[in-house]
Amino acid sequence: MNKIKAALFFIIVFLSLIFVYFVTYNFVEPKGYDFMVRHTLTEKLPFDNKKQVYGSKDIVLVVIDAKTVDKYRWPWKRELNCKIFDYFQKYAHPDIVVHDSIVATLDSENPESDKKFFNSISKLDNLIVGFMPGVLGWENKTFGNIYDSAFRKFAIKAEDKTTSMPNFYSSIMPYPKPYFDSVKYAGSVTMLPGFINGNIASYSIDEVFRNHEYLLKYNGNIYPSVAMKAFLVKNNNPEIVFTNSQIYFPELNYRIRQKTTKYQSIVPLRFYKLDSEGYSHPKISAVDIMDSYDNLNRKQSPVINPELFKNKIVVIGANVPSGTGLNDNKNTPMISNHPGVDIQATAIDNIFHNDFLKVAPHWLNILITIFGMLTVYCIIRICDLFKSIGLSIGLVAAYIIAASICFYSGIVVNVITPPVMFIVTMLVAYTHKFVLENRSKEKVKSAMGKYMSEDVMKRVIQNIDNLGLGGKKATVTVLFADIRGFTSMSETMSAQQVSEILNEYFTEMEPIISKYNGIINKFIGDAVMAIFGEPIQDKNHPSNAVRCGYEMLLKVKELQKKWAGEGKPKIEIGIGINTGEVFVGNIGSVNRMEYTVIGDTVNLASRLESYNKVYKTKMLISSSTYEATKSIIDVMKISDVEIRGKSHRMNIYEVLKVIN
């Protein structure tokens, strides 16, 4: 039964640990990741000059912001965008221009404006526009069923070595045909929220954008994100080898570690410190570019010098807080309204500067967690309470410090889950230790109960912190009972036979003594010494001692009949009882003590027991005991007895019967 209980206990503990791990890892760990991203990745120690904290100045944001729409009321005709694109085509000449926007419809009210816009973007050979894959059933009425085939012009060539590349997307938001024909390069601008573990729980509950999908598979082809497309254009479209765990560029000897989930192949973004406006990269208002274009056309000084964009990557996007439909903010680890254009710039920054996080594999996190849990458990089992608490808390603190250092160095490890599991292990270990110690105490109590009275044991336990030599004076009744002729009897029997008789005899006597509130102080060979009145407080201890002795005699008669039938020898016992003052308490040394009573009262009780041999009696009591019990007994007085060790004679009494 105990094995079943133990097995059930461990099963419950195991399932509970798995449940705590699952909940913590999926719902709490992402918050710890976000905290570390904000407070370690984006900070730099005074002696660390190499760490990149802010986004690269080689990537510049051109943002249609509140300042822009204050001058050019939104929605505007698309031809106004031409000022931005023509500025870069005619004057600035950056390396790459990324347009973080989706054009899904034509402006039916201003077709000429659309025509100017499409003509303008067709002149930019280094322009990358955005497209949006999705799970919706988008359909292009102009292209019909051949749209997907035409869209393949934006696919890239890659050696696909994936074995589980997700086909999550089922359609592409279609471009209008004039726009489709005008653009040369396109990349995905889609982002999905979620944690780097890619669990469905993270996607359905967590609305924080932490990752980037550099490559995706759709309709049998591989397409890049705008960040990846910018990298490919900049590097003359190098060869790509695409696997479940990495994107490899053999010509560049460059690889990007990624994690393939059931939805995406994702790479965690390394975010950068934000400025007061919420951007991590240099940001210029679109209206300043538009005004600069007008000024340059009029041969005037531009607001923004085109030289600023030399050898730069420009990301054009919109971010107007509210009321215009241009709010492209996302919830990221950095901030709850992170501009989408800056997130795209972050993805570009990461891939251009190989500034990626190194994510520890999940098996390593689990291994670290299990090792830490075992360490905590061993500490608690081996060490005392205060030391184990200190070491366990120290282990938790050390792990958090180590995790912080890892994050500072760009290495992602689990931050919350291991400490939580360590703490849960502490609770489990202390519970287990408490159960084991209680079980051990019960075993000790059970074992000690066979060597001392349960009441003495309770007294010791209650005063466990104040154990010491000493005691007090008290009035008690002491009973001695001895087997008559035991020495001669044992000479004719084997040791085993003697022990069997003694064990059965003492087994029958013990409950009688306990019944009358007595405690067995000790067994002395074939004799037993019992105390009444201490430590069990009993004002009727003389009467109970006499009743106990009388019942012991009756029980011996029963044993005589039983043993006669078994061929065992007949035994007789003598009992001596005395009431008086004694010293009761712990006697012995500081290292070994015994709870007992000492004093003349004890000696007299022992003498009375031995006088049963002289007077051929079975139970003798002293005059002090007689005075306290005479109303319940019939006695025979034995007068003027000379007791060894006493200077005067005294009366003793043989108990014939207990009458009440």
Cα-atom radius of gyration:
47 Å
Mean pLDDT: 86
Low-confidence stretches: 198-204, 463-468
In terms of DSSP E residues, the strand content is 15-25%
What structural category characterises the helix and strand content? alpha/beta
What is the total tally of β strands? 29
End-to-end separation: 47 Å
Shape: rod-shaped
Oligomerization state of this entry?
single chain
Features of the shown structure:
29 strands; Alpha-Beta Plaits; alpha/beta; rod-shaped; 8-stranded mixed sheet; 6-stranded parallel sheet
Explain what this protein looks like in three dimensions.
The protein is of the alpha/beta class. The protein has 3 domains: 53-152 and 175-210 and 271-354, no CATH class; 359-447, no CATH class; 454-658, Alpha-Beta Plaits (2-Layer Sandwich), CATH 3.30.70.1230. 43% of the residues lie in helices and 21% in strands. The strands form 8 sheets. Strands 22, 23, 24, 25, 26, 27, 28 and 29 form an 8-stranded mixed β-sheet that branches. Strands 7-3-2-17-1-16 form a 6-stranded parallel β-sheet. Strand 18 and strand 19 (338-339) form a beta hairpin. Helix 11 (362-382) packs parallel to helix 13 (417-448). The longest helix is centred in the N-terminal third of the chain and has 40 residues, at 2-41. Mean pLDDT is 86; it is low at 198-204 and 463-468.
